Amino acid sequence: MTDATDVAERRKKQQTKIRIMLNSLKAGELASMKGGEDTVAWIKEELCIGCDQCTIVCDDDAIELYDKPLASPIMNIEVNKKARVLRDPCTGCKLCVLSCPTDAIVMIDR
Ligand code: SF4
Ligand code: SF4
């Protein structure tokens, strides 16, 4: 049976794997993107599918998932997660932008 320690360990390994992959594949994109301490990540809620990739890569615990009620009452889905950035801990490192499969994250001026 999987316990919390196993999950934490697997999450850490996945975090490292994603970071290495992103760094190698998107180094050029990262260099040309706005970032640094004068910027903060911003998530476009309508594009977020709650996949949790950004929270995995964020070292600074600056992203959290929250429940968003579905707009349509005819869809019976219990969990509808969205991500949001916590401005204060965000360092502007840009990693979350590269991890997002739906391009929901952009860097904006603080
Ligand atoms: S820019 Fe960096 S610190 Fe800020 S939310 Fe994204 S991954 Fe976290
Ligand atoms: S990686 Fe993108 S789509 Fe996935 S939870 Fe984060 S903002 Fe939402």
Please work out how many helical segments DSSP would assign: 4
CATH topology annotation = Alpha-Beta Plaits
Question: Major sheet, described briefly?
Answer: 2 strands, antiparallel
Number of domains: 1
Helix content: 25-40%
Structure report:
The protein has 110 residues and is of the alpha+beta class. It has a single domain (4-109), classed as Alpha-Beta Plaits. The protein contains 4 helices and 4 strands; from the N terminus they run H-H-E-H-E-E-H-E. It has helices at 4-25, 27-32, 53-57, 95-99; strands at 39-43, 63-67, 81-85, 105-109. The strands form 2 sheets. A two-stranded antiparallel ribbon has the order 1-4. Strands 2-3 form a two-stranded antiparallel sheet. The longest helix has 22 residues, at 4-25. The N and C termini lie far apart (45 Å). The mean pLDDT is 87. Residues 41, 57-58, 60, 62-63, 85, 90-96 line the site of one iron/sulfur cluster (SF4).
Name some characteristics of this structure.
two-stranded antiparallel sheet; 110 residues; binds iron/sulfur cluster; alpha+beta; globular; Alpha-Beta Plaits; 4 helices
Summary?
By secondary structure, the chain is α+β, with helices and mostly antiparallel strands. It has helices at residues 4-25, 27-32, 53-57, 95-99, and strands at residues 39-43, 63-67, 81-85, 105-109.
Sequence-ordered SSE layout with sheet pairings:
Blueprint: H1 4-25, H2 27-32, E1 39-43, H3 53-57, E2 63-67, E3 81-85, H4 95-99, E4 105-109
Antiparallel strand pairs: 1-4, 2-3
The structure holds iron/sulfur cluster (SF4) (2 copies).
One iron/sulfur cluster binds near residues 52 and 105.
